[in-house]
Amino acid sequence: MEDNRENLKKILNESGDYSVVGSLWIEYNEEKFFGPGRIELLQHIDETGSISKAAKEMKMSYKKAWNMINELNSQTRIPFVILKTGGKEGGGAVLSEAARDMIVYAQELRMRFQEFLKIETNKFKKDFFQTF
Hints:
This protein is mainly alpha-helical. Helix content is about 60%, strand content about 10%. The chain has a single domain, classed as Arc Repressor Mutant, subunit A, CATH 1.10.10. A two-stranded antiparallel sheet has the order 1-2. It has a two-stranded antiparallel ribbon with strand order 3-4.
């Protein structure tokens, strides 16, 4: 491992302006289940009460938003988005408490992940750019 680091020191730029980065999402049966895009969509639905308005705010087609919601709802025992039928006040959509709980959990997970990336960036810089 030490020889490997010495070789890498010779090929990395001396500026040391490197960062360890990564993407984070939760998978279910090897398919994307919960990540930044779905969290944002759910938050917009929560704010607007509408899948259509949420999709517009994200510059996403209604069909794509609808498919994301259907996938989310099919991957859980409790639906994340509950549809309200039309009528005098029109239809709409609301988030279940399960969705809100999952958003909070995912945000906490993201903070831990960001901390991990920060630690690994510092370790990388220490391994390759710290002078003694």
